[in-house]
């Protein structure tokens, strides 16, 4: 069963790559840029067909893809080259891939919520034994968390996550009877609780209920909230990486992603059968789609964000020098960035294999 979920994830991951590159492709075509090749995958060609001016190809390794536009990395005299188009057209073409990934993520979340329901809302349930004093600080059962330490709370998992990352003093804002109520800073220390099996655990003293919203309008709103939540998760992960809270060993490449997909699918099967496994896979792939949208816009050479950065740098250069920057320099930087990216992927892949072994 795990192998089945890995295969499904590979197929869906390939579709996400196709969607991303199709975003660049269709934007380039609509804005009059010549596209030499539209490829899904990297490495040697498996299949190819040329129609008009564009070669469409499928390559061996399903870990990327590209939309090769005339004059993208080098100077070109072709009036339809990417290099000779105005900056606003270049910008639209460059962001189109990430935009399509974000739209794909929204559609996947919509499908997921339509068949499995929206996530539980962040409603305060009850106070655990020994934590009744929390009510004296103003927090009441039935309140819905709105902000925790300044972070907007959309779903039950958000409340659990940000409470776990907070200190003993937590700034809390809730929705009560439809009105926002700022409770200020509450003292919510961890307390020792005894489980049914006799094991002692540390808990905040608050339970967060399993209340779900229903109806088409609530579903559409929650689809948007979930997408924004995934964007925030990506930024939090990057922040943890920069601050050293996590290291490279905690990152996952294609190998690690497939392993996680297999585990999530199997966990879903154990909880709710094949349906549960597919729900978990759909949720995971939706997260990957949003992740791709965000990561591709980072200002790193060889990524779309790096190209956008150089678009602005080229604009400033032209403003100051009165001429365009030579495209060969952009090609050099992109080449260096590409090799650095490949090196990072190799390191992460080795880490993934080590963790699996």
From TrEMBL:
<dbReference type="InterPro" id="IPR036034">
    <property type="entry name" value="PDZ_sf"/>
</dbReference>
<dbReference type="InterPro" id="IPR004387">
    <property type="entry name" value="Pept_M50_Zn"/>
</dbReference>
<keyword id="KW-0645">Protease</keyword>
<keyword id="KW-0378">Hydrolase</keyword>
<feature type="transmembrane region" description="Helical">
    <location>
        <begin position="332"/>
        <end position="351"/>
    </location>
</feature>
<dbReference type="GO" id="GO:0006508">
    <property type="term" value="P:proteolysis"/>
</dbReference>
<dbReference type="InterPro" id="IPR008915">
    <property type="entry name" value="Peptidase_M50"/>
</dbReference>
<feature type="transmembrane region" description="Helical">
    <location>
        <begin position="91"/>
        <end position="113"/>
    </location>
</feature>
<feature type="transmembrane region" description="Helical">
    <location>
        <begin position="300"/>
        <end position="320"/>
    </location>
</feature>
<comment type="similarity">
    <text>Belongs to the peptidase M50B family.</text>
</comment>
<dbReference type="GO" id="GO:0008233">
    <property type="term" value="F:peptidase activity"/>
</dbReference>
<keyword id="KW-1133">Transmembrane helix</keyword>
<keyword id="KW-0862">Zinc</keyword>
<keyword id="KW-0482">Metalloprotease</keyword>
<feature type="transmembrane region" description="Helical">
    <location>
        <begin position="274"/>
        <end position="294"/>
    </location>
</feature>
<keyword id="KW-0472">Membrane</keyword>
<feature type="domain" description="Peptidase M50">
    <location>
        <begin position="9"/>
        <end position="344"/>
    </location>
</feature>
<keyword id="KW-0812">Transmembrane</keyword>
<protein>
    <submittedName>
        <fullName>Site-2 protease family protein</fullName>
    </submittedName>
</protein>
<dbReference type="Pfam" id="PF02163">
    <property type="entry name" value="Peptidase_M50"/>
</dbReference>
């Amino acid at each position: 069963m795990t192998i089945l979920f890995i295969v499904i994830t590979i197929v869906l991951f390939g579709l996400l790559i196709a969607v991303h590159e199709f975003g660049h492709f269709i934007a380039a075509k609509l804005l009059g840029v010549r596209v030499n090749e539209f490829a899904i995958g990297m490495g040697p060609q498996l299949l190819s067909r040329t129609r008009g001016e564009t070669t469409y190809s499928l390559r061996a390794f399903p870990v990327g893809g590209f939309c090769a536009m005339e004059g993208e990395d080098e100077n070109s005299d072709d009036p339809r080259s990417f290099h000779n188009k105005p900056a606003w057209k270049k910008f639209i073409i460059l962001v189109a891939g990430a935009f399509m990934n974000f739209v794909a993520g929204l559609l996947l979340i919509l499908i997921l919520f339509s068949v499995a329901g929206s996530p539980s809302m962040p409603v305060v349930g009850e106070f655990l034994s020994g934590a009744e004093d929390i009510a004296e600080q103003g927090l009441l059962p039935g309140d819905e968390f709105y902000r925790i330490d300044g972070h907007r709370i959309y779903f039950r998992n958000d409340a659990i996550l940000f409470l776990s990352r907070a200190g003993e003093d937590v700034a809390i804002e809730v929705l009560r009877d439809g009105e926002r109520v700022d409770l200020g800073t509450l003292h919510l220390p961890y307390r020792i609780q005894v489980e049914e099996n006799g094991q002692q655990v540390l808990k905040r003293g608050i339970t967060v209920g399993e209340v779900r919203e229903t109806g088409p309008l609530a579903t559409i709103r929650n689809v948007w909230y979930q997408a924004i939540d995934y964007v925030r998760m990506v930024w939090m992960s990057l922040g943890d990486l920069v601050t050293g809270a996590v290291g490279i060993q905690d990152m996952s490449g294609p190998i690690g992603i497939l392993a996680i997909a297999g585990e999530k699918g199997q966990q879903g099967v154990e909880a709710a059968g094949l349906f549960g496994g597919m729900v978990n896979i759909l949720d995971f792939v939706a997260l990957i789609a949003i992740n791709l949208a965000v990561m591709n816009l980072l200002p790193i050479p060889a990524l779309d964000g790096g190209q956008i950065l150089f678009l602005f740098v080229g604009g400033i250069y032209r403003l100051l020098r009165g001429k365009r920057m030579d495209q060969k320099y952009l090609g050099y930087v992109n080449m260096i960035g590409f090799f650095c990216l490949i090196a990072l992927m190799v390191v992460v892949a080795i880490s993934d294999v080590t963790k699996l072994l």
